Each structure stands twice: as C-alpha cells, then as structure tokens.
Amino acid sequence: MAFPATRLRRLRQTSVLRELVRETELRVSQLVYPMFVVASGPKRTPIPELPGIDHLSIDGAVEEAGIAHGLGIPAVLLFGLPASKDPEGSGAWDDEGVIQLATRAIKSAYPDLLVITDLCLCEYTSHGHCGVLREDGVVDNDSTLELLARTAVAQATAGADAVAPSDMMDGRVGALRAALDEHGLSETPIIAYSAKFASAFYGPFRVAADSTPQSGDRKGYQMDPANALEAVREAKLDVEEGADIVMVKPALPYLDIIRRVKDETNMPVAAYNVSGEYAMVKAAAAQGLLDERAAVLETLTGIRRAGADIVITYHAKDVAKWLSQ
Ligand code: PBG
C-alpha cells in the first residue's frame, strides 16, 4: 500500500482551515447594483422578466438607492426609460432627462453612494439601436460619438460619479474623455464596457429597458462571442483612450476573457453578471432545482476568481445580506 506524499485534504478539514487558505474573497464593497428608472409612473412596478427587480420612479429610485446604501453596497448603475423616444435619442442628454433627474435626486439624498450612469442611446432611440441609424440600417459611428459625448457631459454635470459607455462605437472613450475634460469634468472616471459581446443573455434586460432593436441586431457593433484576442484589443484601446476601469460583459460565458483582460491590461476590471444570467438562476431556484444562495455566491466568487475586481449584479442586495450574516 503506497501512501500519498501530498495530502491536500489536510487543509480542508475545518471551516477555519479552509478560510485560512482561501484565495478569493467576495465582499459587498466590490458590488454594483443596477437599477431601472422610469420617467413617469408608480414608485415601483415589478419586472416579470427579472424577479425581485422593479421599475422605479425617481422617488422609488431614491428609496431603492437608500436600501442598497444601507446594505453597504457602494455603487448603483442607472438605466433610464425616458418619457418619449426619437431617432437620435435626445432624451439621453436632456438636462431634465430621467437619468439626470434620478442622479441629482440620489446624490442629494445619499452623497456617499456612487452613482454610475450607463451611457448608451438604445433606451432613448425610437429604433432601439445604440446610435444614429443611417438609411441603410447601419449605426453611424462618428455622428453617434457626438451624441454620446453630449450625454456624458449631461450625466456628469448632473452629478454622476462615473459614466459607463455601453454602446461599442469605435473611439468613444477618447471622445468622451475629451468632451468631459473640455467641460471641466476631468475628474469623472470612465468605466468602459470594453469587451461587450452580442449576447443572448441580454434578453430580460431589453424587455425591462424597452431597448430591443426594432430591426436587425447589434452584431455590427457588439463583439462576436467567438473572439478573445479582439476582446483584449478592445480593452487595450480603451485604456489608451483614457478608460479608468475596463469591463467584460456578460460574465459567465466569458470568464476566460475576464482573466485575459486582467492579465494583459493590469487595469481594474469590472464584470457584468447580466440579466439573462440572473434570470436563469432565479428560474432554476423558483423550481427548486438550485439552492439560490449557494449558487449565487459560487457564481460571483467564480467571476472574482477569474480576475474581476468589481461585479455588477442584480443579486447585489441579496448578496449583501448573505455576506453580513
Ligand atoms: C445598453 C445595455 C444593455 C445592457 C446593458 N447596457 C443591453 C444591450 O446591449 O442590448 C445589458 C445588461 C443586462 O442584460 O443585464 N446598450
């Protein structure tokens, strides 16, 4: 009988030992909580596609931000559903637009809570694409940059602590940095959705944000799920253009991308555990197929282990409660 020379089980014997050698930590201070703010309507309306998440009025958003803040969550990420849409998405940069109003209201109630604004036109355009649509149905890159720049300035002027461009236009980070700097907003960080893939996992979000493209798809600007080298190029370009934090989105089918982007850029990396990833766990848990708490904590720990410093997740409030128990 040969005995094993190395016994890895020695350090797994008790929870104290396991904790002593644990390599990855999941903390509430690393979480960002996304919220959907509606220009008009009731304080809260449940979103059926995202169980546990509501459409919020401005008052509702302030209340929800207060709850997140009270749980120790450091940041919220705001998405807006405007009162009306047009082909250019002008509601995005309106000083009285839904996100600008919500940002001002939340910052005045909770100055210490970080407000990150998602920066994209798809919730504001009547056609649902993330930029200006040409006659041939293609999103025009460079005229979109101008509108995104206006939006960044409007959001930061309203008090956003960071802007997060999610449109995937070429050159947007440089354009936003220049516009912010010109307007005296050089201290506003840019959290770039650098490697954002054309994913099926945005389905519930698009219903919640009313941002499904009316024609075609987003494959002409969001990335091909098959490409990793290109994701690294995207991230490096965003860093050159001035991104302060780079993001990979979605998270679960792209854990290898999170790792590569972390290793190749050495930047703070955020990962977005998107709506479809959330909805899958909720649906399985509701059917009794999964232990929700264990599955969520394992998932988010995996995203952290892959290299994400920051995790954006609809589970944030639950996780904050579980981690404090
Ligand atoms: C806007 C945007 C999307 C998401 C975040 N910002 C949707 C899309 O690109 O269609 C998805 C987030 C989620 O699924 O939770 N461009």
TrEMBL record:
EC assignment: 4.2.1.24
* Leader sequence residues: none
Task: Tell me which residues bind 5-aminolevulinate 2.
Answer: S275, Y314
Q: Where does Mg(2+) bind?
A: E234
Provide the binding site for 5-aminolevulinate 1.
R206, R218
Q: What would you give as a GO molecular function for this chain, any one? A: porphobilinogen synthase activity
A single GO cellular-component term from the record reads:
cytosol
Belongs to which family? Belongs to the ALAD family.
Instruction: Spell out the SUPFAM superfamilies in the cross-references.
Output: Aldolase
The record's catalysed reaction(s) read:
2 5-aminolevulinate = porphobilinogen + 2 H2O + H(+)
Q: By what name is this protein known? A: Delta-aminolevulinic acid dehydratase
Name the positions where Zn(2+) binds.
C120, C122, C130
Role: Catalyzes an early step in the biosynthesis of tetrapyrroles. Binds two molecules of 5-aminolevulinate per subunit, each at a distinct site, and catalyzes their condensation to form porphobilinogen.
Tell me the Gene Ontology biological-process terms attached to this UniProt entry: heme biosynthetic process
Q: Which residues form the active site?
A: K196 (schiff-base intermediate with substrate), K249 (schiff-base intermediate with substrate)
Among InterPro entries, the record links this protein to:
ALAD, ALAD_AS, Aldolase_TIM
Q: In which pathway does it act?
A: Porphyrin-containing compound metabolism; protoporphyrin-IX biosynthesis; coproporphyrinogen-III from 5-aminolevulinate: step 1/4
Q: What is the lineage of its organism?
A: Bacteria, Bacillati, Actinomycetota, Thermoleophilia, Solirubrobacterales
Record keywords, A-Z: Heme biosynthesis, Lyase, Magnesium, Metal-binding, Porphyrin biosynthesis, Zinc
Report the superkingdom from the record. Bacteria
Assembly and partners? Homooctamer.
Gene name for this UniProt entry: hemB
